[in-house]
Structures are given as structure tokens and as C-alpha cells.
Amino acid sequence: LYFTTGSSGEIWSQLWKTDGSVAGTASTGGSTVQNSEGLAALGDEVIFVKTSTVAPEIWRSDGTTAGTHLLAPMSAGGFSGEIFTLTSSGGLVYVRRASYFDSVIELWRTDGTAAGTFRVASASGRTPYYMPALSAAGRSSAAFWVEGESNFQLWGSNGTPSGSGLLYTTADKNIVAENNVSSPDALYFLLGSSTFKLWKTDGTPGGTGEVLMDNPGSWGASRKLMLAGPNLYFPLVTAAYGRELFAIATSALKTQGDIYRDAYATWSSTAGLSGEAASPTAVPRNDGVANLLKYAFFLDGTSADNRTLTPGSGVSGLPAISIGNGSNDGNVLRIEFIRRMGGGLTYTPKISATLTAGSFVAMTAQTTTVTPVDTLRERVVIESQLDPTAPAAFAVVEVSGL
Question: Distance (Å, rounded) from C-alpha 294 to C-alpha 40?
């Protein structure tokens, strides 16, 4: 067990370790620890933030003087009245750095090595006093709240800069997030102002949203969440009995994004895919078409299939792209594709004149025609006048989601 000792009112305290015996209780050699939620477990060791004359530092300790050492200094300057919060998630420790006075927040992560200790996100805003500062969100992610100048923000991170960012934002400054509890798969919390809804996040945008459930009552003034075993417990006020205790299996607590991902999981399972081969980005049939595109355009997931859609009559296939004569003595770029309805996917036609990386931009459509095909799909035809001075034109339909 690691703990800190210090006098009342001190910002910093001393790090100690004990095994429950007098002989096994000792200081780690004078290591000073920031008091505000300043310890987090990493295996059998502990991560903490230590003061410095230049910048705060992230340290690691095994409870001995020799085993207590610096991992990395944090960035210098830009903060006054600093506060730190630490949490463990999926073999990492996340460190949130904020200020009582400055509108800036940083998120750091460490795997216990110097090379694996670095900043992954920074946000402009403050940590509201009534919200949890930092929480584990699933097996390997963390989430934190930010009060911006004109909005409320929920941020998440999987421990990488590219996997860290804004999960949800609203302009309602009266929003409150409270009573958060962490399970191995997600972070559950209540979100609202005058009325509240149950939300969850796994630290990703697609895994963040309101839980879809039929509430038999209202949350009332004493809003509580508690996890025990596979269930989430909470009290609701009902018209029939007043305050009642309810329990729901966490496996049944679904957001709209969960439902979308479940539909994809059913498709990939039916196609005989599992493990890494079932990933939306995988190309298990060696046909150059990722699973996400096959799912989006109704291609065959059980075998190699890279067919192009037959314009006008086809109901599956990759987008059909062609150039024809327009009404203004110019050429028209025509893209036709099948779009999955209610699948949570975003289809974005893009155009480029060079094919170079980063050159594709969203296509400006002159006309868009959408025709239902069946209960699952619709036909989309987009036409756009081409720039007559462009030497060439290349088009794609980018699919995102899940």
C-alpha cells in the first residue's frame, strides 16, 4: 500500500509504502507528492507527480529509495495554482494537469518508462468544480471534462495523440456530469441540468452517447450510480412507489453507436470473420476492399468481391464514377453509390485533381438525387460541374463511422 503523509494545509506531502507491518513501513526517501489525487497504481508500483523548480515531473516508485526515479518533466510555464489528477487504465496511468486560475488543461500518459511518458492532449478551458476531473473509461482509455468559454466538453484518450480529442460538446453551460462509475468496458455518468440522462463512454467518439433505455421514473434529487458485478444499480422516483432501486446488466446498456457497431459485428460474424480479420479496416479476402467498405456498399464479405455498382439498377458494388456532358458546355462528374440506411455511417464524396496525399476535398454537388431501394439501402446520385481548367479529376466516396 502506498500513501502520503503531511501536515494540514500543505500542498505537498511525503510518499510512504507499507506491507501492513511496522518493519515494512517506510518512506521512499523524501519523495514529495502533489496532494490532489496524486497517486495511481501501475502494476505493483506507483506513479506520482513531484514538484520541481522548473516544471512538475512524473515519477515512478517501487517503494524503495533506489527504485524511485524520474520518468519525464512536464512542460514548463503556462500554469498557476496547478492541480493534478491521476487514474490507471489498461496498463497506463493518465495524468491530468490543470490550473485554478488559467484556462488550460493537459493530459499526459505513462507506461512506466521514460519513452512512454508524454503529453497526448491539451484543451482550452477549466475543470468545473462539480465534475469529476479524470476517470478511466473502459479497458485502456480515460475521459475528462472541460468547461470552455462558451461550452461544455467531454474529452477522451486511448493513450496516443491521434487517439485523443473531443468526444462531445454542447453550448449549454448549465450541463452537469456527475456520479460517474467505471466498468471494464466503459464509464457511466449522468448528464443534464434540470433533467438528467444516463450516458456512457469508452473514450472514443463512436462509443460516447446517451444510453437508450425506457426510464420507468425520474432521477430525482439524490442521483446515484453503483456498479456491482455485471449490473448497474440506480434509484429512480416512480409514480407508483416513490423511490425504487433498479438494476440493469451493463451488457444491455446501449447507445445508438453501440447498436450500429452491433449491426456491423453481426455482418462480420455472418461473413465468417473473427479477431483482427473482423476489424472494419481489415482486408481479409485480399481483394483490396476493407470490411467497412464492403459493409457500406453491400459487397460480399465471405469472399473476394470488388465489383463496381451497375448504374441505375445495381444494388451492391463500389461507387460508379463517370464524366458526361453538362448543360453549360462543360463536363459533369457523376457519382452513384448505394448507401446503407440507419447504419451510423457517413458517406462523403471527395474530389482531387492530383491524387496526391491530402489533396482530396469534399465535393460540391450541383444536384443530389436519393432514391429508396429497400428497407436497408438507398441509391444516391451526385453530379457536379468540373473545373474546365483542371488537368484531371479523381473522385472517391469516403466512408466513416463505427
Answer: 43
Sheet holding 39-42, edge to edge: 39-42, 45-50, 57-61, 69-73
What is the mean predicted confidence (pLDDT) over 354-375? 90
Distances in whole angstroms, Cα of residue 123 to Cα of each of 83, 106, 175: 15, 6, 18
In this prediction, residue 6 carries a pLDDT of 64
Place of cell 440506411: 341
HEC letters along 123-170: ECCECCCCCCCCEECCCCCEEEEEECCCCEEEEEECCCCCCEEEEEEE
Q: 51: helix, coil or strand?
A: coil
328 — pLDDT class (breaks 50, 70, 90)? low
Beta pairing partners, 37? none
Distance CA 74, CA 88 (A): 18
> What are the C-alpha distances in Å from 164 to residues 56, 58, 79, 121, 184?
22, 20, 21, 6, 19
pLDDT at residue 244, as a whole number: 92
Report the predicted TM-score, pTM, of the whole model to 2 decimal places.
0.76
Which residues, in sequence order, are bridge partners of residue 176? 192
Side-chain half-sphere CA neighbours of 109 within 13 A: 23
